[in-house]
Every structure is written in structure tokens, then in C-alpha cells.
Amino acid sequence: MSRPQENREIDITRARPKKGAAPAPQGSQPVPHGVGEHAGQQDAQKQHGTARASSARPGGAKAHAGAGGQAGTRPAGARGKRTGRRRAGIAALAVLLVLAALAGGAYLYVDSLIDRSDLGSFDDVSSPVSTSAEPSIVPPDFAGVRNLLVLGLDYEAEGPVARDEKHPNTDMILYVRLDGNAHSMTMLQIPRDVFVGEAGGAAGKINGILAKNVDIGDGNGLGAVKTYIETNFGLPIDDYVTIDMDALTEMVDAFGGVEVYVPQNMRYYNEKTGALEGELLQGWRTLLGGDCEFFLRYRQGLPRSDLDRLVMQRQFYAGLFRRLKTASVGDIVKLLPVAQKYIKTDISTLELMSIAIEVSGMDSADISIGRLPVYGSGQLYAGEHSVVVTAKEETAALLNEYFRPADDPIAAADIGTPEWPTTGGAASAEMSTMGDVEAVGAEEPRK
């Protein structure tokens, strides 16, 4: 839908001031056996006094000594499997970038994001837009609760289950509950490897539901994902936001980088040669797009692999949120073409702007993030696919505390994901506020 281009004023005066300090961060949980897998790393670049790494793509790789007071190899790309190339934890990136762009007044661009997905729809979602001769673009106050499903789409054509542009995996799944009354946002990371059996296609994982259903009936892949989550986890969903995983480097580079605290030294070694092909040293770093991809995908040195990676990625979310809080109109304008290219949603323009204003006024202590509790699998699915299994008792407790109405709790028996042999103890949700995350490294000097 096109609209005449004209100068308009957008009222963002309802954003609330910040609150007090946040609590200290939580610790990690024991590792369940069978969770995670190794994956290759991606190109990265450094700035702020560090030496630039050479790209390491199939056919060769080089590393350089770090400058700026720290020795070591800077992040470089790795030759690892392409199947891990776009599996970075950037679902929250999609949410925050969309909201930031809207809060900056990107009204004309936002129209191009509405109802453009070829992967299906949420049939019960309305998208009201004013049809008056001179439509008002001052959004109403955000009120009540809005539940969003944010999906990162991976079109990787290699790996155990090949995908294409019509049949993407949803390798990033984030459930977002926005509460306009409590002025809070609570996010739930759903691991891509959660076992769903035949519903997930050949690999039996939740990330395959969309691809399996694109060609069934009317081809409503998005609707199938929504139905599965609503039915089996008791989580109502109002709207969707999808983001192409190729967007990461372009978005971060357009934003001029994101300052992130790297909580530990991160080193990637070539699994065949043992050569060091990528490194990020502990401390504050301003990461460009390639750096962020390295940081978000890294798991070779993490005891619990994917689970630890999801927790560590929260440092990126915290850095991004800080950056968005200080974004100028010029910053937002730079993001618009990237958002238009890679992000789709079925939320109406005025509703998006209302949500943007609400989120822009939230304190970091009122933004929480956790992960679906899971067990490691004791058996490969179909003889070749490693999965994780929903820890139903722990999941029910988590959903009741953070995501469901107090007067309508869900029981463990109501969690409908299928059973599968498990091993070890359940990995907890590791809920934390954005304030918790921001407290990590707060006392260390910035570079």
C-alpha cells in the first residue's frame, strides 16, 4: 500500500523515564548430556584500536595479532559447516530493530512490511488502518497484553534437511509477551531442536514445522507454527514478525556497530587442522556485522553448546537495546531499507508505532528473557538427528509464572510435545532481566 509523501509529526512524548538499578546476574545450570552440536564460525571484523582480520572462507584462512593493548588473533571467518552459517540468536534483534524503526517515525516505510509474507498468515489478526482523507499517524496508548511470535528464517540449502526460499527453517523462535499495564516485555527463547516428531518433518524438530506446511492445503506455514505453539504450550499468539537471517550483518553495519561485553575469551579452532581461525577476547567490544555473527554463533568453547550460547547471546541483546535507546533519526533512516528488505509482519502501522513507543520507554529491569527448559536426548531421531526434549514440569512452572494469566495455569500434562528418551537433568529456563545482563562487565572499563 502506498501513501502520499508529506511531512508529518509523530508524537513520541509518552515514553517513560528510566527507573533504578537492576539486580545482579544469575549463574549457569549443569549441562544435560546430548544437548548441542559443533558448528562453523563466520567472518568478523574489529574496530576501536584492534587489527582487522582477514576473511577465512573455504580455501584458506589467516589470522592477525590483536592490537589495542590485547594480544591475540582477531575474529576471522571459519571454514566450518555452512549449515550453521545463519543460526545466530537474533530473534530479539528482529523485535528491537522493528520497534526502533517505528519509534523513529518510519511511517511510510512501515507500510511495506505489512502482510507481505508468502509463508502463510495468522487468520485471526486484523490490521486496521485509517482510511480518512488525512489520516492521523499519532498512535494510541498501548494497553493490555500483546503476544508476538518472532521467527528467524534460515534458507540454508545444505545440511541434513535442505531448505530453499519457499521452505525455510525457523531456526530462531522467540515468543514475546508485551504487557501495557505492567509496562514490561517478557521473551521466551524456544530452542530450534525441540522435539516435535512428525509435526517437524524429516528431522522431527520444531524449526521444521513451517517448511513442512508451506505446501499443505493453502500453504499456511506460519499458521501451522502458531497453532502448534498455542496448542502444545498454551501460549496465545496475536501477531508475527519474521526476519531473514541474512539480515544480521547488514543491519548491524547500518547501525554503525553495537557495543557488547564479551563475557569470556572466544576461540574457534579448525576441527581438521587445529589452527586458530577466529577469536574474540573478553571485555567490551564494538562489534560490526561480521563480529556479531561470530559472537552469536560461537559455541565451540561452551560446555553446554547451544544452551550456553543462548545465554551468552543476551549480552548482544543488551548492547542492542542500549544502542537503540540512543538512536538518532539519522540512525533509524539508515536501518529502514534493511528492515524493508528483510523483515515482514502482520501488525498494522499504527499498532506497531504504539508498541514502539511502549517499548522505547521500558527500563531494562522490566525486560526479561528466558529459555524453554529442556532435556538432552538419549536417542537420535530417525537415526541421525539430535534433538532436545521439553522438560514439561519445569516448562509448566515457567509459563505459569511469566507468560500465562494467574487464574489460568497450565499443567505439565497439558504440554503436548511428544515423549522421547532423555538423558541427564533438565536445563532450567535461566530467566534474567535485561538489567541482570547489563550488570555483567559493568565495572570493567570501556575500550
Automatic annotation (TrEMBL):
Superkingdom of origin organism: Bacteria
Ranges of compositional bias, category Basic and acidic residues: 1-14
Classification via Pfam families: LytR_cpsA_psr (PF03816)
Low complexity bias (residue ranges): 56-65
PANTHER family associated with the record: POLYISOPRENYL-TEICHOIC ACID--PEPTIDOGLYCAN TEICHOIC ACID TRANSFERASE TAGU
Family assignment from sequence similarity: Belongs to the LytR/CpsA/Psr (LCP) family.
Name of protein: Cell envelope-related transcriptional attenuator domain-containing protein
